[in-house]
Design brief:
With 332 residues, the protein is of the alpha+beta class. 18% of the residues lie in helices and 27% in strands. The chain is built from eight helices and 14 strands. It is elongated, with a radius of gyration of 23 Å.
Length: 332
């Protein structure tokens, strides 16, 4: 049997979500049965799977002790295996903004494990004394947005559950503006505007297709752009995502005949052969916050954060692209 008190970082979650994170050894079938048979009680009363937890709630769990056993010592803090390399653009007690370099994955997947952006952030906070997994029942610092492995740029992380809930809500409300810089092949007739289309995703190929008219299952996409400079048949473009879909920028510009430089998935090897780029020239370079005065992160209202050390800009500004095959570029 185990009793625990719901902390501020645990509050606001559904009961089943909390139990899954707090007790990874507890099979879901066991959890559902224990709730149904009142072997899990909230404030000494029967509860439902969907019950929202509040700070100060008491949770009593009448199950065998092996359910509560901690993971083996070597698996307890797996983020300590991650690299200490982390480029922090901004940090306070609530949030951290990191400049993720191309090539680094943000979360573990089937192919990568042990050194991701979130692992590095958690190690950074642990060593700074700001995150103690042993003192948390379910919460861990988490990412608010994500970008592809081979795209670089700004990624937001929340240090507290309250900050995570608020930032996630603001992302959905489009109150956090995200701006990208990219290089595209060719020049655009209209130097600024909004591209609109309908995106179809092929899960098996991990690729998306853009259509000009609605299709069954297609999702609306809107991509705002502004051409900043043109040189040697290439254009430097600032992009604001009005919708955030998989590969949206890459697929949208390719669909109008102007794929990103270095993009082998949505462009062609013929176009990219004289660039030396193995990956797309795309960088999430700026975020702008729009928060109201009564919110806990109101101090961020109208603040913007950006990076200018972007790996492909020097080649473009100095006119090296397209003149002769460049040495394969190192990203970051």
């Amino acid at each position: 049997m185990k009793s625990l008190i719901i902390s501020e970082n645990d509050a606001g979650q559904r009961l089943d979500k909390f139990l899954t994170k707090a007790f990874p050894n507890m099979p879901k079938s066991m959890m559902y049965k224990a709730i149904r048979t009142k072997n899990i009680k909230l404030n000494r009363k029967r509860c439902e799977i969907s019950t929202r937890l509040c700070r100060g709630d008491q949770l009593d769990i009448y199950l065998n002790d092996d359910v509560f056993a901690p993971p083996p010592p070597g698996e307890r803090f797996p983020f300590l295996k991650a690299s200490r390399s982390l480029d922090v653009v901004y940090e306070d007690s609530q949030i951290l903004i990191a400049d993720k370099k191309p090539g680094l994955i943000v979360h573990s997947d089937d192919k990568s494990f042990g050194d991701t952006l979130i692992d590095r952030i958690q190690r950074h906070l642990y060593e700074a004394g700001e995150y103690d997994p042993a003192a948390e029942q379910s919460f861990a610092p988490a990412l608010v947005n994500r970008i592809d492995r081979n795209t670089g740029g700004l990624v937001l992380a929340a240090k507290t559950a309250e900050a995570l809930r608020l930032l996630n809500a603001k992302m959905k409300e489009r109150a956090i503006e995200k701006f990208y810089l990219c290089l595209i092949h060719g020049t655009l007739a209209r130097k600024e505007g909004i591209l609109e289309g309908y995106l179809e995703k092929d899960e098996d190929k991990n690729k998306v297709f853009v259509h000009s008219s609605p299709i069954p299952g297609g999702r609306t996409i809107r991509t705002k752009y502004r051409v900043l400079q043109e040189k040697n048949g290439f254009s430097l473009v600032e992009v604001e995502l009005l919708t955030g879909r998989t590969h949206q920028i890459r697929a949208h510009f390719a669909s109008i005949g102007h794929p990103l430089v270095g993009d082998g998935k949505y462009g062609t090897n013929t176009l990219n052969k004289n660039t030396g780029y193995r990956f797309q020239a795309l960088y999430s370079y700026k975020v702008v916050f729009h928060f109201s005065a009564e919110e806990s992160l109101s101090y961020l209202d109208r603040r913007s954060f950006s990076v200018d050390n972007i790996w492909f800009l020097q080649d473009f500004y100095e006119g090296r692209l397209g003149k002769s095959p460049l040495t394969e570029r190192k990203k970051g």
